[in-house]
C-alpha cells in the first residue's frame, strides 16, 4: 500500500472511503480562452496556476464557480474587486461577458461599445466541464453550456444547458449540438444527460460527489465559494463567522415572523378599512331616502296645484272642506238665533216693569223738595270736573316755569311775572352771545380732537419707520415711487441717510436749521431721472417735494473735519452715501462755533442756536421746528409723545369749556321757553283757589237742603237704584238686540257662503272631473288641521273651526310654497351631503372607475356598501385581532426558541471541528488548535429577550378589548424592532453577534492553554495562512459531512491568490494542513509571489495571454501523460 508522507504523519493513499478528485477542467469559448476545448489536468495533491495580472487565472477559477455554484454566487474577488452590485449583474463579470470574451469598452458615435473576441453581431456559444475521478477508477463529468444569440442582453435570453455524464466527456463533442443551438436531441446524441433546472443539476452533482450531509450540499458549496474568494479577514471571530457559519435560521425566522404578522395585520387593516368604509357609506341610504321623500313631496305639491287656481285639486279640497264647515256653522247659527230672540223678549218685559217703579219713586221725591237738591248736586259735579282741569293746568304751568324761580299765588303775582317774562323776551342779545360762545367752544374742541387723532396716527406710523420724516412727506414720496415703479429705498430723503452723533446731540436743532429744505430732498439715481420725471408728471401729492438726480455708488473719501457739520453726522450705508457726503462737505461744510463772535473767523460757520454765516451773508431764526434728521424713530417718537400729551391736555380743557357753554345755552333756552309759556297762559286757566271756593259754596247748598228734609236722601237713593236698574235693563236690551242682529247677519252671510261654496264645488266636479287621491287628501288635511291639538281643552265650535280654516287658507299658498321650498332645500342639502360623503370616500379610498356624482354613481356606492355588509368583513375585526395576537404570539415564542436553538447550534458546530483538529498537530507535534466560544453580554439583547417573554405573557393574560389592544401595540412595536431595516435587528436576531469566537493553542497531551489566537492581523502572513487553513479546513470537513471519515468525500478546494504572503516554512505548513485534512488544492498566484508555493505542488501551469487578448494554460510542471491541450494542440487557438 502506498503511503503519503505529510507533515502530519503517514496517510494511506488508497482509502476505503470514496473520495472524488478533480481530474480535468475543459473550456470552450470561455473568456480569453477562445476556441477549444482548453484542458487543464489537476494533480491529486496540489496544482498551481500562476500568471500575470489579467492573464486569465481568475477566469479559470470563475469557470469552476459557473459550473458548480448557484447563479447567486459572485465570481472571484480578483475579477470583481472594483465593482459592486448584484452578483453576475451587468456591472460585474457574467456569463454573457465570459461567453463573448469581453476585452474592453470603447466610445463610438453610437455610444459605448464592448470589444469582444467573438459574438460581435453573430451568435456564439460557450461551455465549461469538469471531470472527477474516484480511487476506484470511476469518472463523473458535469457540463454547463450556453448558446448566446447576437441579440442577447440578459442570461434569460440564452439557451442554457445543464448536463452530466457518468464517465469522461469531451467538450468537442458539443460542436455539432452548438450548430443546432444546443437543441435537446443533439445533446442527447452527444451523450449528455440534461436537467431542466439548476436545482436538479446541482442536486445530482452533490449526490454523486457526496457533497454535504443530509442534503446540505448548498452549505458546503457556499463555504467552498467563500474559501475560493480569499476574503481579507482580521480576526478569528470574523473568519469563523464569515467562512464557516452560514446566516442563522433566526434571520429567516424573524423575517417569517414579520411577514406573518404583516400578512395578518394587512388582513386586519382590510377589516378596519371595511369598517371605516361601512361607516362612511352607511348614511347614503338615509340620504337617498330623504331625497326620494322630498322628491315625492314635490310631485305631490305639483299635482295639488295652487289654491288660487280654480280647477286645481287644492281648490277642490278647499271647497269641499269649507262647505262642510259652513253647513256646521249654519246649524249652530240657527240655534243661536232662537236663543237670542228669547233673551230679548225677557229683557224688554223686565225693563218696562223697572221703568214704572222708577217714575213712581221720582214723583214722590219731587213733592218732597228734591228739585233744588238735584240742581245743586248737578252744579257741584260740574265744578268738581272744572277743578280737576284747573289743577292739572296749574301743575303743567309750574313745571314749565320752574327755572324762573317765581312764586305765584295771586293774580297780582301772575301779572308781575308776565311783565318780567315780556321784558326778558325783549332782550335777544344775551341769547345770541351764548350761542356764539357755544359754537366757538365746540369748534375749538373739535379741532383739538382732530389734531390729537392725527398726532396719535402719526405716532403709530412712526413706530414702523426708521426715520424722522413727517407722514405727509412719506405719503407723497410713496405716491411718486409707486408711479415710477421704484421702492422707497431707491428714493430716500436726505434726512433718512444721516444721524447726529450722540456726543453732538445739542447741535440737532442747529443742524436741522442749517440743512433746511435739503434735509427733505429726495435723492434718485441719475439713470432713472428721465423716466421718473415722465412717470410723476400727472401725480397729485399732498405735499410738494424736491428731488435731485445723483450719481450712485461713489466711493467714500476720507473722514470730514469733526469740527464741521458733516463731520458730526453718522451716515447710513447706501449707494447714495458717497455722493451725499461730498455734497454736504461742499455746500454745508459749516464749522461749528461756540459763540457768535467766532463766526467771523471762518468762511462758513454755525452756532449752537442755528445762526449761520457765509462771508458777508447769514441767516438766523426758525427755532422750534420739527426734527427730520436720523435713521432711528426714537427721537421722533419722543417728540410725538410730548405733542400728544400737550394736545390731550388742551383737548380735555376745551371739552370742559364746551360743556359749560352748552349748559349756559340750555339754561337760557329753558328760561325763554318758560317766559313764552307765561305769556301764553291766562290767570283764569290756573286759578285753583277760585274754583275751590265755588265748590265749597255748592257743597253748602246741598248740606242745607239735606238737613231741612231728612227723607229726601233715602228717596234719592231709591230713585238712583231704580234708575241704575232701568239703565242696566236698557243696556241688556241693546246687547240682546245687537246679538240678535249679529246672529241674523251671520246667518245670512253664512247662507250666501254655503250657496257660493256649493256652486263652486258643483262646477269643479262637473267641468274638470277632478278627484282627490287619499295621499293628496291626507297631505292637505294634515297641513291644515281643524281640530285643536290633544290636551288643549274642549273641542272648538264650528264657527271657530271655520274661522281657523279661513285664517289658514289666507296663508295657504305661502304654506304650500314653504313646503315646496323646504322639499327643494332638502333635496339640495341631501344631494350636497351625499356628494361630500362620496368625495370623502374617494379621497380616502381613490377609485378611478367611480365619480362623486349622486346621479350616476350612487348605485355603485350602494353596491359597494351591500358587498361590504354581505362579506361581514367589518364585523370580524375584533375576532381577527384576537387571532392575530394568538398566532403572532406563537410566532414570537418560536422566535425565542430559535434564538436559543441557534445559539446552541453554534456551540454544536464548534465541537466536531475541534474533534477534527485534535488529531492535527499545530505549530509542532506537541500542540493542537482548538476553537473557543464566549458569550457577548448585551443589556439591549437581554431586554429584548425579556420583552419577548413579557409580550407573550401579556397576550395570554389579555381578557378585555383594552388589554388586547395594549398587547397588540406592544407586539407591533416589538416586531418593528426585528424588521430587516430596523437599526438593531442584527444585534438582536443574528446569533453570530451574540458570541465571540477565538482560537487557542493547547498542549496535545494535557489540553492546557498555551496561546490565544484572536486578531489574525497581529500574526505574520504565514502564521495567518496556517491558522486559516486549520480552522477553515476542519470546518469544511465538517460541512462536507464526513468529519469522521479518513478523508473527505469531495476533495477539491480552489484558493485564489492565497498563501502568497507566507514564507516557505509557513507555506509548507499551510499546504500541509490542507492536504493533511485530505483536500486536493488548486492554487492561483501572481507571477512574483508563488516561489514559496512551488515546492509543495505536483503540477504547475503558466497562464499566458497574447496581444489579441487570447489566454491559454501552459504546463510548467506537467503530470505524466497530460497537460493543457488546446485547439491547436499546444495552446488552443492562441
List keywords for this structure.
single chain, 1134 residues, alpha+beta, 6-stranded antiparallel beta sheet, 54% helix, elongated, disordered C terminus
Detail the topology: elements first, then pairings.
Elements: E1 3-6, E2 9-12, E3 20-28, E4 38-41, E5 46-51, H1 57-68, H2 77-80, H3 95-100, E6 102-108, E7 111-116, E8 124-134, E9 139-148, E10 159-165, H4 175-179, H5 184-189, E11 193-194, H6 198-209, H7 217-229, H8 236-244, H9 249-281, H10 283-304, H11 313-367, H12 370-400, H13 411-425, H14 429-463, H15 471-484, H16 494-497, E12 498-500, H17 508-515, E13 522-525, H18 529-536, E14 547-550, E15 569-571, H19 577-587, E16 591-592, E17 604-606, E18 612-614, E19 617-619, H20 634-680, H21 683-686, H22 688-708, H23 711-767, H24 774-783, H25 798-810, H26 812-844, H27 858-871, H28 877-917, E20 927-935, H29 939-957, H30 961-977, H31 985-989, E21 995-1003, E22 1009-1013, H32 1021-1040, E23 1052-1056, H33 1064-1076, E24 1080-1086, E25 1099-1105, E26 1111-1117
Parallel strand pairs: 5-24, 5-25, 13-14, 16-17, 23-24
Antiparallel strand pairs: 1-2, 3-4, 3-8, 6-7, 8-9, 9-10, 10-11, 12-15, 17-18, 18-19, 20-21, 21-22, 25-26
Helix pairs in contact: 7-32, 8-32, 9-27, 9-28, 10-26, 11-23, 11-25, 12-22, 13-20, 14-20, 15-18, 28-29, 28-30, 28-32, 29-30, 32-33
Provide a descriptive summary of the structure in words.
- This is Nuclease SbcCD subunit C.
- Residues 613-627 have a biased composition (Gly residues).
- By secondary structure, the chain is α+β, with helices and mostly antiparallel strands.
- Among the domains are: 235-268 and 876-1014; 282-312 and 770-874, no CATH class; 465-632, no CATH class.
- The chain contains 33 helices and 26 strands.
- The strands form 8 sheets. A 6-stranded antiparallel sheet has the order 4-3-8-9-10-11.
- A hairpin with a 5-residue loop joins strand 17 and strand 18 (612-614).
- Helix 32 (1021-1040) packs parallel to helix 33.
- The longest helix has 57 residues, at 711-767.
- It is elongated, with a radius of gyration of 63 Å.
- Mean pLDDT is 78; it is low at 1-16, 77-86 and 1123-1134.
Amino acid at each position: 500500500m502506498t503511503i503519503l508522507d505529510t507533515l502530519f504523519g503517514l496517510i494511506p493513499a488508497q482509502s476505503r472511503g470514496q473520495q472524488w478528485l478533480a481530474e480535468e477542467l475543459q473550456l470552450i469559448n470561455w473568456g480569453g480562452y477562445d476556441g477549444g476545448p482548453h484542458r487543464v489536468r489537476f494533480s491529486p495533491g496540489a496544482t498551481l496556476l500562476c500568471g500575470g495580472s489579467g492573464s486569465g487565472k481568475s477566469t479559470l477559477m470563475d469557470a469552476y464557480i459557473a459550473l458548480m455554484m448557484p447563479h447567486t454566487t459572485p465570481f472571484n474577488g480578483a475579477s470583481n474587486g472594483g465593482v459592486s452590485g448584484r452578483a453576475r449583474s451587468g456591472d460585474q463579470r457574467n456569463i454573457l461577458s465570459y461567453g463573448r470574451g469581453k476585452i474592453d469598452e470603447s466610445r463610438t458615435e453610437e455610444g459605448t461599445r464592448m470589444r469582444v473576441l467573438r459574438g460581435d453581431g453573430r451568435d456564439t456559444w460557450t461551455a465549461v466541464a469538469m471531470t472527477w475521478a474516484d480511487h476506484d477508477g470511476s469518472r463523473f463529468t458535469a457540463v454547463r453550456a450556453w448558446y448566446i444569440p447576437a441579440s442577447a442582453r440578459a442570461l434569460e435570453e440564452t439557451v442554457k444547458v445543464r448536463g452530466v455524464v457518468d464517465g469522461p466527456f469531451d467538450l468537442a463533442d458539443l460542436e455539432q449540438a452548438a450548430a443546432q443551438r444546443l437543441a435537446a436531441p443533439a445533446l442527447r446524441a452527444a451523450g449528455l444527460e440534461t436537467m431542466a433546472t439548476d436545482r436538479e443539476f446541482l442536486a445530482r452533482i452533490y449526490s454523486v460527489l457526496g457533497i454535504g450531509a443530509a442534503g446540505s450540499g448548498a452549505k458546503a458549496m457556499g463555504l467552498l465559494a467563500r474559501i475560493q474568494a480569499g476574503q481579507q479577514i482580521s480576526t478569528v471571530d470574523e473568519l469563523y463567522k464569515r467562512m464557516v457559519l452560514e446566516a442563522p435560521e433566526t434571520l429567516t425566522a424573524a423575517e417569517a415572523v414579520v411577514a406573518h404578522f404583516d400578512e395578518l395585520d394587512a388582513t386586519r387593516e382590510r377589516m378596519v378599512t371595511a369598517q371605516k368604509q361601512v361607516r362612511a357609506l352607511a348614511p347614503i341610504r338615509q340620504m337617498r331616502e330623504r331625497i326620494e321623500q322630498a322628491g315625492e313631496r314635490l310631485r305631490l305639491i305639483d299635482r295639488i296645484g295652487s289654491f288660487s287656481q280654480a280647477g286645481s285639486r287644492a281648490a277642490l279640497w278647499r271647497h269641499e272642506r269649507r262647505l262642510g264647515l259652513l253647513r256646521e256653522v249654519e246649524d249652530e247659527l240657527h240655534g243661536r238665533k232662537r236663543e237670542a230672540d228669547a233673551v230679548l223678549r225677557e229683557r224688554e218685559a223686565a225693563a218696562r216693569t223697572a221703568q214704572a217703579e222708577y217714575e213712581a219713586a221720582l214723583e214722590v221725591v219731587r213733592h218732597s223738595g228734591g228739585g233744588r237738591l238735584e240742581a245743586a248736586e248737578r252744579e257741584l259735579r260740574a265744578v268738581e270736573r272744572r277743578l280737576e282741569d284747573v289743577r292739572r293746568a296749574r301743575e303743567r304751568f309750574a313745571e314749565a316755569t320752574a327755572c324762573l324761580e317765581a312764586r305765584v299765588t295771586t293774580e297780582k303775582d301772575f301779572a308781575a311775572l308776565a311783565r318780567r317774562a315780556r321784558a326778558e323776551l325783549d332782550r335777544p342779545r344775551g341769547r345770541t352771545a351764548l350761542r356764539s360762545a357755544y359754537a366757538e367752544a365746540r369748534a375749538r374742541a373739535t379741532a383739538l380732537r382732530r389734531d390729537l387723532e392725527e398726532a396719535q396716527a402719526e405716532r403709530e406710523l412712526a413706530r414702523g419707520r426708521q426715520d424722522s420724516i413727517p407722514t405727509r412727506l412719506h405719503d407723497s414720496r410713496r405716491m411718486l415711487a409707486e408711479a415710477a415703479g421704484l421702492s422707497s429705498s431707491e428714493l430716500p430723503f436726505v434726512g433718512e441717510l444721516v444721524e447726529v452723533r450722540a456726543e453732538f446731540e445739542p447741535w440737532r436743532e442747529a443742524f436741522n436749521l442749517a440743512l433746511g429744505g435739503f434735509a427733505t430732498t429726495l435723492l434718485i439715481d441719475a439713470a432713472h431721472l428721465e423716466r421718473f420725471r415722465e412717470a410723476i408728471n400727472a401725480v397729485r401729492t399732498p405735499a410738494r417735494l424736491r428731488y435731485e438726480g445723483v450719481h450712485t455708488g461713489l466711493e467714500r473719501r476720507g473722514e470730514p473735519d469733526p469740527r464741521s457739520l458733516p463731520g458730526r453726522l453718522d451716515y447710513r450705508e447706501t449707494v447714495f452715501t458717497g455722493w451725499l457726503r461730498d455734497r454736504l462737505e461742499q455746500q454745508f461744510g459749516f464749522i461749528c462755533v461756540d459763540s457768535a463772535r467766532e463766526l467771523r473767523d471762518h468762511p462758513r460757520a454755525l452756532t449752537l442756536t442755528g445762526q449761520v454765516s457765509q462771508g458777508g451773508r447769514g441767516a438766523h431764526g426758525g427755532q422750534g421746528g420739527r426734527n427730520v434728521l436720523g435713521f432711528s424713530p426714537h427721537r421722533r417718537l419722543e417728540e410725538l409723545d410730548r405733542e400728544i400729551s400737550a394736545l390731550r391736555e388742551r383737548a380735555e380743557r376745551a371739552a370742559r369749556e364746551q360743556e359749560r357753554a352748552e349748559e349756559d345755552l340750555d339754561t337760557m333756552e329753558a328760561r325763554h321757553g318758560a317766559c313764552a309759556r307765561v305769556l301764553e297762559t291766562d290767570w283764569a286757566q290756573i286759578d285753583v283757589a277760585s274754583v275751590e271756593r265755588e265748590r265749597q259754596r255748592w257743597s253748602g247748598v246741598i248740606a242745607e237742603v239735606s238737613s231741612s228734609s231728612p227723607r229726601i236722601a233715602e228717596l234719592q237713593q231709591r230713585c238712583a237704584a231704580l234708575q241704575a236698574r232701568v239703565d242696566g235693563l236698557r243696556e241688556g236690551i241693546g246687547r240682546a238686540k245687537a246679538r240678535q242682529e249679529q246672529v241674523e247677519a251671520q246667518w245670512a252671510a253664512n247662507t250666501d257662503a254655503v250657496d257660493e261654496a256649493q256652486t263652486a264645488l258643483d262646477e269643479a266636479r262637473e267641468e274638470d272631473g277632478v278627484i282627490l287621491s287619499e295621499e293628496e287628501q291626507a297631505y292637505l288635511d294634515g297641513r291644515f288641521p281643524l281640530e285643536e291639538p290633544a290636551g288643549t281643552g274642549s273641542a272648538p265650535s264650528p264657527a271657530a273651526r271655520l274661522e281657523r280654516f279661513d285664517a289658514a287658507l289666507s296663508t295657504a299658498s305661502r304654506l304650500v310654497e314653504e313646503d315646496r321650498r323646504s322639499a327643494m332645500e332638502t333635496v339640495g342639502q341631501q344631494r350636497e351631503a351625499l356628494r361630500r360623503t362620496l368625495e370623502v370616500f374617494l379621497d380616502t379610498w381613490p377609485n378611478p372607475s367611480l365619480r362623486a356624482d349622486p346621479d350616476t354613481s350612487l348605485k355603485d356606492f350602494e353596491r359597494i356598501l351591500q358587498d361590504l355588509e354581505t362579506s361581514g368583513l367589518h364585523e370580524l375585526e375584533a375576532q381577527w385581532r384576537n387571532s392575530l395576537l394568538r398566532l403572532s404570539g406563537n410566532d414570537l415564542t418560536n422566535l425565542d426558541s430559535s434564538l436559543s436553538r441557534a445559539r446552541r447550534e453554534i456551540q454544536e458546530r464548534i465541537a466536531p471541528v475541534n474533534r477534527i483538529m485534535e488529531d492535527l498537530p499545530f505549530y509542532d507535534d506537541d500542540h493542537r488548535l482548538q476553537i473557543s466560544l464566549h458569550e457577548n453580554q448585551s443589556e439591549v439583547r437581554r431586554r429584548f429577550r425579556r420583552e419577548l417573554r413579557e409580550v407573550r405573557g401579556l397576550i395570554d393574560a389579555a381578557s378585555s378589548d383594552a388589554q388586547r389592544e395594549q398587547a397588540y401595540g406592544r407586539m407591533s412595536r416589538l416586531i418593528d424592532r426585528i424588521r430587516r431595516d430596523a437599526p438593531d435587528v442584527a444585534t438582536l436576531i443574528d446569533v453570530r453577534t451574540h458570541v465571540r469566537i477565538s482560537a487557542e493553542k493547547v498542549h496535545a497531551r494535557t489540553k492546557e492553554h498555551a496561546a490565544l489566537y484572536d486578531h489574525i492581523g497581529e500574526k505574520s502572513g504565514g502564521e495567518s495562512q496556517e491558522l486559516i487553513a486549520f480552522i477553515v479546513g476542519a470546518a469544511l470537513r465538517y460541512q462536507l459531512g464526513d468529519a469522521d471519515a479518513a478523508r473527505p468525500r469531495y476533495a477539491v478546494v480552489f484558493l485564489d491568490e492565497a498563501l502568497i504572503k507566507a514564507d516557505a516554512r509557513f507555506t509548507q505548513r499551510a499546504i500541509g494542513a490542507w492536504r493533511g485534512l485530505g483536500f486536493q488544492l488548486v492554487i492561483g498566484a501572481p507571477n512574483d509571489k508563488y516561489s514559496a508555493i512551488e515546492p509543495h505542488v505536483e503540477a504547475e501551469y503558466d497562464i499566458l495571454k497574447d496581444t489579441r487578448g487570447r489566454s491559454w494554460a501552459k504546463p510548467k510542471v506537467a503530470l505524466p501523460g497530460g497537460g493543457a491541450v488546446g485547439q491547436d494542440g499546444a495552446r488552443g487557438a492562441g
